[in-house]
Specification:
Elements (H helix, E strand, L loop, with lengths): L21 H15 L1 H12 L3 H5 L9 E5 L11 E8 L22 E5 L2 E7 L6 H16 L7 E6 H15 L6 H13 L19 H18 L9 H5 L1 E2 L13 E7 L4 E8 L3 H9 L7 E2 L8 E4 L2 E4 L1 E10 L2 E7 L10 E2 H8 L1 E4 L1 E3 L2 E3 L2 H10 L9 H6 L5 E15 H9 L3 H19 L3
Parallel strand pairs: 2-4, 2-5
Antiparallel strand pairs: 1-3, 3-4, 6-7, 7-8, 8-18, 9-14, 10-11, 12-13, 12-18, 15-18, 16-17
Length: about 450
């Protein structure tokens, strides 16, 4: 699934369900993968048995591959196998000990996932968290089958971690590249990455030289972003939501419909290689009204209140606090051109951003000005005060003048950023401290934004 795709289009996401039953959903999702991706099934069977898959399919004396994968089956519905494996999949591996209590014969246990390969049976108990109780559950399921059928087969047990499973899935994805569609694997990896980012194997930044285009680094940044969200808003259900797909939500309160910004993002920037933590204050007109109309301050003056030497302190370390006002031109909700306000273009005449917002923001109809399409005169005059050459210094002409667009949404925002030099980010990530550091920076950025702009 690409970065911009709606999460509801993921094969494994349930539409419109506020609280999904994740254990059942994960079991179902993995069963679908096993049904549709033979390489993952082969890898799983080999991981459990320690045998080559070919040995398993010849378990009844001749090569056959009669495979049945199911979920939510009562243990009393299975035929007696020649071999039986009880398997746990959770965030930890667990030792198997003697079953502490017999199962209740009145209520035969139900499997999470079952796999039969010829006459070899695999009973899999799935847990999305660290739950040692899964050991007893799978033992009860196996014992139910054996005792119900008075069977003398000696069961074997195996405990796996989700990292083992995701490694199999990613290996299958890499193997399939250029050979067949990865539709199921891509959807499963996106589903798991959103709900449980810690399961996806990815190396820390200290293992990579700086490269903005590097897929492994991009994967690590995505993981960091998701874990920062969990650090900021634990147990809120925001992890994996719409906000996380695009960035880290500004607010942990899902009931807030509009805030002064939508999100924080984390991005690699070159030049001086760095990790940039950024947000866009007042980026839309609705956000701008909160920032520039509802501010407790009478005016927000640029450049007077945007000192280049501003900084914030995080655990004794000083980080530069960057602030850049900009005008955004959008078609509907999609930004197409941006104009950064420059102190040099203002000719030492400070501009009040609150008044500028009032003068230019909103849905504007483009009209013919002579032989040229443009804004009505009042808006154009205000933009000319910012930068007389603003049309040529943005993508305005390509995005609007040379197109059939007749409406433009104009908003005024402030990009706020704090950068961590890439070598420092590498050291922090190597010590497993980068996620906490970024979370601290975002908390401090929010405080500073509220204080500076009177929010």
């Amino acid at each position: 699934m690409n970065q911009g795709q709606n999460g509801h289009l993921n094969l494994f996401n349930f539409f419109g369900v506020a609280k999904q039953y994740l254990e059942n959903n994960v079991s179902r999702a993995f069963a679908i993968i096993l049904q549709n991706e033979p390489m993952v099934l082969k890898g799983l069977i080999e991981l459990i048995t320690g045998k080559n898959y070919c040995e398993v399919i010849q378990s009844n004396g001749f090569p056959d591959n009669d495979v049945e994968i199911d979920i939510q089956r009562r243990m009393t519905s299975f035929d007696v196998p020649s071999e039986i494996y009880g398997v746990t999949i959770a965030t930890q591996k667990y030792p198997f000990t003697t079953l502490s209590k017999p199962f209740n014969t009145a209520y035969p246990p139900i499997t999470d996932i079952s796999i039969s390969v010829n006459d070899v049976l695999f009973i899999i108990e799935v847990k999305p968290h660290d739950e040692p109780s899964c050991v007893q559950q799978v033992q009860e399921q196996v014992n139910c089958l054996l005792q119900t059928n008075n069977c003398s087969v000696v069961p074997k047990y195996k405990s796996l971690k989700w990292e083992d499973i995701l490694s199999l899935v990613e290996c299958a994805k890499w193997f399939n590249e250029g050979i067949r569609s990865n539709y199921f694997l891509d959807n499963f990896i996106d589903f798991i990455s959103a709900k449980f980012p810690g399961w996806t194997p990815c190396k820390p930044l200290d293992k990579f030289e700086f490269d903005k285009q590097s897929l492994p680094i991009g994967k690590r940044i995505k993981y960091i972003k998701q874990m920062v969200c969990e650090e900021l808003y634990p147990n809120t259900g925001l992890l994996g939501g719409r906000g996380v797909k695009d960035g880290i939500p500004v607010s942990g309160n899902k009931g807030v419909s509009i805030d002064w910004a939508a999100m924080f993002d984390i991005e690699l920037l070159d030049g001086s290689p760095r990790l940039s933590i950024r947000t866009w204050v007042g980026d839309t007109c609705a956000q701008g009204r909160l920032v520039f109309q509802n501010t407790k301050k009478r005016a927000i003056l640029f450049p007077n209140e945007f000192p280049k030497g501003a900084s914030i302190q995080i655990s004794g370390d000083s980080y530069k606090f960057n602030m850049q006002p900009y005008v955004k031109y959008s078609s509907f909700s999609k930004g197409l051109a941006w104009l950064n306000l420059s102190e040099d273009k203002l000719l030492n005449k400070p501009i009040d951003l609150c008044k500028l917002f009032q003068d230019i923001h909103g849905r504007r109809e483009l009209a013919k000005v002579g032989n040229k399409k443009g804004f009505e005169l009042s808006v154009k005059n205000n933009l000319d005060k910012i930068d007389p050459a603003w049309e040529g210094n943005t993508d305005w002409i390509e995005a609007f003048v040379k197109t059939q667009r007749k409406i433009v949404n104009v908003s005024l925002g402030i990009e706020v950023s704090v950068d961590i030099d890439y070598p420092e980010a590498q050291k922090l990530d190597a010590k497993d401290d980068l996620i906490k550091k970024i979370a601290e920076i975002i908390r401090e950025m929010k405080k500073e934004i509220v204080k500076r702009f009177g929010l």
